[in-house]
Amino acid sequence: MIMRENQLIELIERYLGGEMTAQEREDFEALRKNDASVDAKMAEHKDLTSLIKQYNERVKLETRLNAIHDEIDVHTLKEDLMAHPSWIVQMWRNHHSKISVAASVAILAILLTLFVTGDLSNKDPRFQQLKADVEGVKRQQRQLGEQQKNIYKTVKTAPVTNAKFRGTGFALTGNGYIVTNFHVVNGGDSVYVQNAEGTSFHTKVVYTDPAYDVAILQVNDTSFKNIGPVPYAFKKSKSDLGELVYTLGFPGDDVKYGPGALTGASGYRGDTTEYEVYIPVNPGNSGGPLLDDKGNIIGVINGKQTQTSGAAFAVKSRYLLKAIQSIPSDSLTKSINLNTKSTMANLSRTKQIEKLRNYVFMVKVYNQ
Questions:
Q1: Which of 31, 41, 70, 169 lies in disulfide reach of 180, CB 3.0 to 4.6 Å?
Q2: How many domains does the chain have?
Q3: What pLDDT is attached to residue 74?
Q4: Domain check: are 238 and 211 in the same one?
Q5: Of residues 89, 88, 105, the one with CA closest to residue 143
Q6: Contacting residues for 329 by C-beta, under 8 A, at least 6 apart
Q7: Is the domain of 206 the same as that of 322?
Q8: CA–CA dist 193, 218 (Å, integer)
Q9: What is residue 234's predicted lDDT score, i.e. its pLDDT?
Q10: What pLDDT was estimated at residue 154?
């Protein structure tokens, strides 16, 4: 008796689905062995079933990708980045792992293409439609990948407008250790530093010394590259009254130079851990370096006396060095080897500033 094709397909589906009795399976396997066309039909049906299953999975992935794509509205991002940079950073953290699922579409597309470019593609017009659908998904995946890159680039370089606190910091070493004031980072949940080119890097606070108003940060951003040896040295001895000094800092969105002189051996209310300096500082200068003419760090700017015009204060470098020596070794993943000789001693002030720019950072502090 000649078996109709629909009857054969029903038998194949029951066999593949495990719905046959032991005797029925034995009879069917004997039929496959004796009739090559039956065995070929089962192999073809098996491939078709697998293809349909993969197609359904691809549709689910496409739906998920479209949902993510709708959520990441690039036009809206361009408007919101300036006003809500911390929001876009948070959104990036929440969704970058989801966006990576796009890579799986490429893998699926390769598997489907193996089917649709073979002999089976000539047997059923649905395969041609499936091939067109896969190409469409691949195009969407490429577009989403480009948007992902653009979003990441914009987030990394977006200016900050809504940080809770903002100050200045400068490099202790080229491998990512930065010093700022304790009062700049105190109370913040997340701390970033931004270099002179406008690129931001996430940091962690590895040590604080409230008594000296010092905080040590370490950049823990994988995109950060070693910036090389710092050009200044850290002065251990005291500086003299009348010495010419200067600072670089971020009271605004770009670095500002402040020249001045050392006017007092003690700081606010006679604090011997500080110098008094006659120098222009404003909110945002806190944590900036105080340097002498030879390019030595002699202090860390930490405050302004509002009752005395032009008077500001800086933690003496010897107390910064004490704070560094007090850092528990298990808090550091890299060594802090301070430069002992300035390479700026014989440079003009403008050349010194040119060198310093790469080692002075804007410090941005956020709350969740």
A1: 169
A2: 2
A3: 45
A4: yes
A5: 105
A6: none
A7: yes
A8: 10
A9: 96
A10: 47
Q: Are residues 234 and 328 in the same domain?
A: yes
Residue 249, amino acid = G
- Could you say which of 139, 157, 175 is where a domain stops? 157
pLDDT of residue 338: 93
Q: How far apart are the first and last CA of the chain?
A: 76
Residues 113 and 236 in one domain: no
Q: Residue 145 has what pLDDT?
A: 62
Q: Which residue type sits at 106?
A: A
Give which of 77, 75, 332 is closest to 207, Cα–Cα: 332
Global pTM?
0.58
Residue 351 lies in a domain: yes
Residues 48 and 174 grouped into a single domain: no
pLDDT, residue 92, reads 47
Cα R_g (the chain), whole angstroms:
33
What is the spatial distance between Cα 97 and Cα 363, in angstroms, rounded to a whole number? 28
Residue span of the structural domain in which 191 resides: 161-368
Q: What are phi and psi of 136, to 5 degrees?
A: -65, -40
Q: What is the structure's pLDDT at 299?
A: 96
Q: How far is CA 152 from CA 89, 138, 233, 257, 311, in A?
A: 9, 21, 36, 31, 42
Stated length of the chain: 368
